[in-house]
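A reminder before we start the practical. When you read a complex entry, don't treat the lines as separate problems. The point of joint prediction is that each chain is placed relative to the others, so the output describes one connected object in space. Small molecules and nucleic acid strands, if listed, are placed in the same frame. In the example below there are two entries. Take a minute to note the order of the lines before looking further.
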Amino acid sequence: MNTYPEQVVVTGLGAVTPLGADVASTWSALLAGRSGVRVLGERWADELPVRIGAPAEDDATAGIPPLQRRRMDRCEQLALLAARQAWQHAGPPAAEPDRLGVSFACGVGGLGSTLDAYDTVRQQGWQRLSPFTVPMLMANGAAAWIGIELGARAGTHSMVSACASSAEAIGYGMQMIRSGRADVVVAGGADAAILPLTIAAFAVMRALSLRNDEPERASRPFDKGRDGFVLGEGAGAVVLESARHAAERGAVVHAVAAGVGYAADAHHLTQAIPDGAGAAAAIRHCLADAGVTPEQVVHVNAHATATPTGDRAEAMAIRRALGGAARGAVVSGTKSMTGHMLGGSGAVESVLAICALRAAVAPPTINLEDPDDEISAAGLDIATEPRELPGRGGRAVALNNSFGFGGHNVCLAFTAV
Amino acid sequence: MDNAKGAVVMTEQEIFAGFAEIIEEFTGVSAAEVEIDANLSDDLDIDSLSMIEVVVSTQDKFGIGIPDEDLRSLRTVRDVVGYVRRTQRVSA
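Here is the predicted structure of the whole assembly.
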């Protein structure tokens, strides 16, 4: 266990994902091995080389009144819903406004609103723009909406580190509590960027799977036949709380947010270091921060986007960081079912890692039919079916890896209670 | 309500009803609840950004222009109804 004076615990979970509009439905779909990837029906998709994606559940925004909804980007809507779920799940905690914080990230933020606004300017003139355009496009908008709704005055923060953003936001939220700035922090992230521009832009990088005819088989982490990620959307949220505050109010504790590790590749804008050195450093820093050993790690929710080089580097990173103990950790690539939710991924996958610890079962990695040779050589135990986790109780650790373009590597450690 | 030139001139009651619909659209306050002496900011909670939506919609609905410099004089529902009425008559 780490030696920080303030231990941080997780007292609330929330998620809106391609598999369900809440945590319970997402988790049961994951265990059933259901894919959230489908053919995109929008007409614009016809013109693109990639016509599949993993949209969040359609009724996901139903809890927001229409008037408010049209002043929010979809990313902000999904974020607010996930945060509300986590908040309700947590009690909600009666935190002092000055001791309540928000750390909530978007990888790209209100890009859909930005594109719509640009169309309006060009086609109808500037006076036809919504006066809410700026708050809809700013990447801190999601954090701001959540902070205003909850009355959080200890600080509202947004990290931007591409697909590592929301893992970083959870790490920052932990640090707010450890440093004594806050008793309770709502942390997480969201993105809703299934848009013609993003699909085209990722496609032109050759980053997306082209398996248009088999959407459910397209996202194939660690498989020999993987050919890129599938763009998804979604939001995840956790309520972080000082252990003392949670104990005083008798809150149910779902996990300990035990550690966070960061490292940068300083290597290439979009390519990981081939041997995963940067990711391995983040994992090692995380274990040290949490005060746990590699042998305690029973589960890794891998970043595993299903790109050819990224998955290989991550497999080597896990092996490097955990050493021989890597064989004792069941690895899951849940993007095989959710697609890649960009700034939502780290938070959703942290929620899923905590669900795995609580249930003592790792979700499957679907579509892993023929493991990549180099990944096999790393000797990881990758779940292809739901798998019971070894070792329950307070020493079991689950890790969540999140990496972002730019060379950002973040690892979070949660321990069971 | 159309005069001989074809420009639209509405009665005060018609303008009030039309403006109440705009308020409903942008504030969620039901049109039937809107009172003629309601203050746009204090009573109807229309902030500076919402006011821009209300003004653009008012211009469209009543076929008038409302320059930014006139906005400060529009504090109540009655102010807006009177403004629309005068402006329609001038342009008719």
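Discuss with your neighbour: Chain A touches chain B at residues 65, 67, 127-128, 130-132 (CB under 8 Å). What might explain this?
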